[in-house]
């Protein structure tokens, strides 16, 4: 039996769309607030917290990601080279490896790794602090949670994606050279010529922009979900798992959209 007070379908649809757009607008507002703190948050008072999160997020994950990406890259490079040789397309093997690994898989895997290892756990931690009233206590003491807790973690997430992505791309290029030519310098001219043909000015700009927007998405979206958790009524707050799940879905959707746009820019 339907309730008399049930709203029409179009009203519920409009409410859902409004809430969806409002959530994305809130993320943009959070990003604007973080960027507005950039000139003042790197002062002497907040520098120690920023340095701590930078080291904690980057150094502790650098070894793990380097080892994993090296192992995966070696396997994929070997598969591509053997397949190309079997079809008599050895001259295209380097270009295929660079385009598949360096341009597409490595940046995306770096962003996902940082999200799963740093941004999403930090978001859950901040959401827990918000539900415990820690941020209210900080404001009563004259402290700004956005500057002291959120900004260092956002900065660490952005820097970690840049560092892991850049290091893994360089390492993959070196592994590709060693797999093709071995430990000899005689193949360097031919190798650099092929890599230079792949990395045209447009492709290089698209790769840099993709890593940049990946880092912003990884750093901002989970933290924004935790920041606005404090503004939700206590009876309507989600669990830490649900908060992290919503942030993860939004983050993966943005990463997928950025990857699709970069593919269109590179190949269309």
TrEMBL record:
The keyword Transmembrane helix applies. It comes from Undibacterium parvum. This is ABC transporter permease. Coiled coil: none annotated. The chain crosses the membrane at residues 20-38, 59-84, 154-178, 198-228, 240-264. The lineage of its organism: Bacteria, Pseudomonadati, Pseudomonadota, Betaproteobacteria, Burkholderiales. Keywords: Membrane, Transmembrane, Transmembrane helix. InterPro entries: Permease_MalE (IPR030802). GO terms for cellular component: ATP-binding cassette (ABC) transporter complex. It holds the Pfam family MlaE. The keyword Repeat does not apply.
